[in-house]
Write a structure and sequence with these properties.
Blueprint: E1 10-14, H1 22-32, E2 36-40, H2 50-58, E3 61-62, H3 70-84, E4 88-93, H4 99-102, H5 112-136, E5 139-149, H6 161-185, E6 188-194, H7 200-203, H8 208-218, H9 226-237, E7 248-251, H10 262-269
Parallel strand pairs: 1-2, 1-4, 2-3, 4-5, 5-6, 6-7
The chain binds nicotinamide-adenine-dinucleotide (NAD).
The site of nicotinamide-adenine-dinucleotide has 27 residues, from helix 1, strand 5 and helix 7.
Length: 270
């Protein structure tokens, strides 16, 4: 169903790895809502070639960029504006990776080289994407930038290890950059804190399946799917949310406001 919410808008969508990726769903929805956009991912992630299918479906160009490399991001904006024919209206940051999680390193014994890598890929990349856009004046007034976060930025989740700290940084960047960019150019910056979602990044977390079920039972509406998340992102890119900025927006079926669900209590009573 299309309401043309993004008609005439130009965007950049990072992080579509395969059809499970949240960014993949955002691209499909953005296309459905009339946007034109560029897809981007780290060159190494493109070896699988899945992204070509998405580019074909959404009639979009792929511009490879490692989001930790400023020169790549500069090239991404230059080529995106050239290809799309003007400044950018929306950007999705959908990038996350922790080597400590991948290698099952416990939080109390974190490897700091891995930690630094995680910060660079998952949080500083957001600052770089914003700082390059700001320097190049690549975003239109009232443009909207969204990054994806997780509630472990505010609450302790043992399995999320260093990504908890990294997401806290990501959310802080949204607030602080949101202040400056809002003042100067009326650009909006928010994070969406999403339910656990079955994707490559999500599935890499030890005990993810058990936790996915727990969260699903804890949330009155159940876990929000990747498709639901995409719909929410579309509203944030649209003009209907013009005054929303510097927020961490919980998109979790009510999980974060629930102390305990009856299902969890019943399970404990067994
Ligand atoms: N899956 C979940 O449970 C969940 C929940 C809340 C938030 N998130 C967040 O959603 C975002 C998207 O993750 P996803 O779950 O769709 O998984 P995903 O694995 O499909 O996406 C992660 C993407 O990051 C990209 N990436 C990694 N390093 C990069 C680099 N150096 N430069 C550019 N891109 C790079 C990967 O290639 C991949 O496309 C992440 O920020 C993740 O933390 C996920």
């Amino acid at each position: 169903m299309s309401n043309n919410l993004l008609k005439g808008k130009r965007g950049i969508i990072t992080g579509a790895l395969d059809e499970n990726s949240i960014a993949w769903k955002v691209a499909l929805k953005a296309h459905e809502q009339g946007a034109t956009f560029v897809l981007t991912n780290a060159p190494i992630a493109m070896r699988m070639g899945e992204i070509n299918k998405l580019a074909e479906k959404t009639n979009s160009k792929i511009i490879p960029a490692d989001a930790t490399v400023v020169a790549d991001i500069e090239k991404l904006y230059t080529e995106s504006m050239e290809h799309l024919g003007g400044k950018i209206d929306f950007v999705l940051h959908s990038i996350g990776m922790s080597v400590n999680i991948r290698k099952n390193v416990p939080y109390t014994e974190l490897n700091y080289d891995y930690f630094n890598k995680g910060i660079d890929v998952s949080a500083l990349s957001f600052h770089k994407i914003l700082a390059v856009a700001h320097k190049m004046d690549a975003l239109n007034e009232w443009g909207s930038v969204v990054a994806l976060s997780y509630i472990a930025a505010q609450r302790a989740y043992p399995f999320y290890t260093d990504m908890a700290d990294i997401k806290a940084m990501l959310e802080s960047i949204a607030r602080t950059f949101g202040y400056h960019y809002g003042k100067q150019k009326k650009v909006r910056i928010n994070t969406v804190s999403q339910s656990p979602t079955r994707t490559t990044a999500g599935g890499g977390i030890k005990g993810f399946n058990e936790f996915f079920e727990f969260a699903d039972h804890q949330s009155p509406l159940g876990n929000a799917s990747a498709e639901d998340c995409a719909n929410y992102c579309i509203t944030l890119f649209s003009d209907l949310t013009r005054m929303v900025t510097m927020q961490n927006l919980l998109h979790d079926g009510g999980y974060s406001s629930t102390g305990v669900s009856q299902e969890q209590l019943d399970a404990m009573a067994k």
